[in-house]
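Researcher: Hi, I'm a grad student and pretty new to this. My advisor asked me to get structures for two proteins we've been looking at. I'm not sure of the right format, so I'll just paste the first sequence and hope you can take it from there.
Model: That works fine. Here's the first sequence with its structure tokens right after it:
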Amino acid sequence: MRESVQAEVMMSFLVSEELSFRIPVELRYETCDPYAIRLTFHLPGDAPVTWAFGRELLIDGVGRPCGDGDVRVAPAEPESLGEVLIRLQVGGDQAVFRSSTAPLVAFLDRTDKLVPLGQEGALADFDAHLDEALDRILADQGAG
């Protein structure tokens, strides 16, 4: 049985220090991939772009800087937890999004009610779903 949690959050896409614009971002969590969340960014004039990364990274990043790779999450201001920055990087290109913390925490709370943090491995058929997901990723990379 596939269960999920979804939310739409308005985030600011920070183009530069002087320029930003608000875009809708869909957050999605599914029990078939219990360690990950997906953020789908709806940029004007472009096809939606989806990024998947660890749920725990977003949980931790709300309170302190986290991430070493292509995804980094941190409070926007070290002394305030009111807003979060999400940095996505591919090669030398980077996109930065700013979000209010409250809707992210509300979404994460709903994911925790569906699958409590630390209980992800207890889901039935997780290994089969992981194999399917890896096959899809490898097929997408081969096609791209």
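Researcher: Oh nice, that was easy. Here's the second one.
Model: And its structure:
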Amino acid sequence: MSEPRWLTDEEQQVWRDFSQAAAMLQAHLEGQLQHESGMPHTYYEVLVSLSEAEDRRLRMSELADARRSSRSRLSHAVARLEAKGWVRRESCPTDKRGAWAVLTDAGFAALQEAAPGHVEAVRESLFDPLTPHQVRQLGEISKAVLARLSPRCAAAAEAAEAGEFVAPVVELPKSG
């Protein structure tokens, strides 16, 4: 096993700041949506994906891929959204095992009601503290990280769906 590429002091600080900022941002946005709209961020994202799709419908597998979610987790979320009357499932006429998730008018109305507060929370929390140059840098940085991780995450998701996922073993250095 090769020697780990330890983080420099500066990299360690950047990593900790980034990790804490990302967690705080997610928690803030989750709390805002729960408080103002009574929905978790995950459900909001499902509604957004469906609202942007042609005829406000996506195959369940496409919706799971778009949300970077396991099919079972997405199915649970869609069941909750169905119970609220915001989404309905329809059988796929060309694939007996396939199903469509369809955004209902009530779901679209719930999204329209939630969106202004959510967008304001995103703007206030993420974009307002940044200069236009920093916003562009954040976009470039985000794209670079996504480009690196997307193929790995897709492969891990496929393995997990097939029941083949095994958590990697990480050996930590011995202190002393």
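Researcher: Is there anything I should tell my advisor about the second?
Model: You could mention this: Residues 168-176 have pLDDT under 50 and may be disordered.
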